[in-house]
Specification:
The protein is mainly alpha-helical and about 50 residues long. It contains one helix and no strands.
């Protein structure tokens, strides 16, 4: 009995890597930006 080998195309795809990194940095930027805005609103509400 011979095991079947599943061959897939696993070549390096720079466009896919770029898209994934760009998406991750975008989500991180949005998250940090929203937290900064919420923190500023919270501090102004607490100090007034």
């Amino acid at each position: 009995m011979q095991a079947e080998v599943c061959k897939t195309d696993r070549t390096f795809q720079p466009n896919l890597v770029f898209a994934l990194l760009l998406g991750n940095f975008t989500l991180i930027g949005i998250t940090i930006g929203v937290q900064g805005v919420l923190w500023a609103e919270l501090m102004s509400a607490l100090l007034s």
